[in-house]
Amino acid sequence: KTVGAAVSGGLDSCTITKWLVDNGVKVVCFTADLGQPDERDVSEIRERMLACGAEDAIIVDAKDALAEAGIRLVQCQAMYEGGYWNTTGIARHVTVKALLPEMEKRGVTILTHGATGRGNDQVRFQLATNMLNPHFAVYAPWRDPNFLKVFGGRKEMIDFCQAHNLPITATHEKPYSTDANLLGLTHEAGRLESLKTPAGFITPGMGVHPKDAPDDVEHFTVTFARGTPVEVNGSPVTSLQGLLEANRIGGRNGVGIGIHTVENRFVGIKSRGVYESPGMELLGKCYEYLLQLILDRRARRHFDGVATTIAEQIYQGYWFDAATQALLASIEPLTNLASGTITVALYKGNVAFHASGGAPHSLYSEETASMEAIGDFDHADSEGFLAVLGVGARASAVAGQTQE
C-alpha cells in the first residue's frame, strides 16, 4: 500500500521512510512548513526524504495557519503545566489539517507518523486525523511490533541511518532532541532526562539565555484589535509578522528561553522538557496586562477556568472537538473587548509592565481608584456595603462556623 508520511526530515522521518520502503511499502512524504527555526532551507527536507527512498516529497506552507493558531493560544492564555505554551501541541493539529487534503488529492488515505508510543504526539496525530477525516487510517511504526524488534531507540536508528548513508544530523553524542516551529522549540530526551541537568544546559535556538541578554532595557509596544496584534512598535503587522518580530525582540532579551517543566503526559508518564517560546511569552504577557484592564471579577473567574481547560484540551489532542470549540466561543465576547496598546520593558528575560493606552473597553478609572480624592466613589458609601456584609459574618460566628 501507499502511505502518506508526515515528516520533519529528522532522524525518525529518515528511519521510518527507509524501513517502510525496504519492507515494500510505497511512501509519499508530506512536510508542513511551520517556519522551523532549525531548518536553513525547508525545501532541503524534500531532498533528504527522496534520498531515503520516498516516491515523492511535498512541502505544504502552513506558517500563516500556525501563526493564527498561536494568536488564539495567546487570546485564551492556553499554557499547560509550568508555563508551556503548547507550541508543539497546537502545531500537530495545524500540521494534520494542512496535510490531509494534500494526501487526499493524491489518493493516499493512510497517514503515518514518527511519534513514539509513550508520548503525546501520537495522540494528537491520531485524534486530529480521526476528527478531520474519519475515513483515514493511521499507521504508527513506533506501535508496530515488527518495527520495535529492530529499533529500540535513538541508538539503533542512528546506526541504521549511518549504515544506509541516510542524510541525518543526529549523532550518538547529541545531548538532547529538539522539535521546532515558529511558535517555539521543545527540547527533551538525552541529557535533559536527568533532573541534575539544568535548563541552562540547552543551546538556545531562538535567542539567548537571560544571563547573556543585553544589560540595557528595551521597550516593546504592541497594539491589539479585538484580541489580535495589529501593530508592533508602531508598524502594522499580520499575525505571522507580529509573532516573528516578537520572537526576534523577545529572543534577544532572553524572554521565554529555557522554560523548565516536569509535566504530566497524557499517557500517564511524567516527562521533563525545556522550552523556548519568546514571541508567545512576550505577546502572551502583553495580552495578560490588557486583560487586567477589561475583565471584571466574574469574567476573570470564567476566563481563568476556560484557559486551563483549553490548554489541557490542546495538550491531549482535542483542539478540534466540540468541547474546545464551545470553550473558545464562550470567551469570544471577552476577546472582542481586547483592544488597546501595551508597552513593556524587557530586561534579561523579564517582561515588566511599562504603559498602556487606547483601550476603549478598560474598566480602570484613575479617578475612581484614586486614594487622593473622592471622585465618583464616596468612601462613606462603603458604610452600608460593609454593614450588609457584616450580617453574614456575624451569623457565621454565632453559628460556630468560624475558626481562630
Structural write-up:
There is one protein chain. Helix content is 41%, strand content 20%. It has helices at residues 11-22, 44-51, 63-76, 87-105, 121-132, 145-150, 154-163, 239-252, 278-294, 297-316, 322-330, 332-335, 366-369, 382-398, and strands at 2-6, 26-33, 56-61, 110-112, 137-139, 177-181, 184-188, 218-225, 228-232, 235-236, 257-264, 270-276, 340-347, 350-357. It has a 5-stranded parallel beta sheet, with helices on both faces. The protein has a 5-stranded antiparallel beta sheet with strand order 10-9-8-13-14, with helices on one face. A 4-stranded antiparallel beta sheet has the order 6-7-12-11. It is elongated and about 85 Å long. The termini are far apart. The model has no long low-confidence stretch (mean pLDDT 96).
Q: What is the structure about, briefly put?
A:
By secondary structure, this protein is an alpha/beta fold. It has helices at residues 11-22, 44-51, 63-76, 87-105, 121-132, 145-150, 154-163, 239-252, 278-294, 297-316, 322-330, 332-335, 366-369, 382-398; strands at 2-6, 26-33, 56-61, 110-112, 137-139, 177-181, 184-188, 218-225, 228-232, 235-236, 257-264, 270-276, 340-347, 350-357.
Write the layout of secondary structure elements.
Blueprint lengths: L1 E5 L4 H12 L3 E8 L10 H8 L4 E6 L1 H14 L10 H19 L4 E3 L8 H12 L4 E3 L5 H6 L3 H10 L13 E5 L2 E5 L29 E8 L2 E5 L2 E2 L2 H14 L4 E8 L5 E7 L1 H17 L2 H20 L5 H9 L1 H4 L4 E8 L2 E8 L8 H4 L12 H17 L6
Parallel strand pairs: 1-2, 1-4, 2-3, 4-5
Antiparallel strand pairs: 6-7, 7-12, 8-9, 8-13, 9-10, 11-12, 13-14
Helix pairs in contact: 1-7, 3-4, 3-9, 4-5, 8-9, 10-11
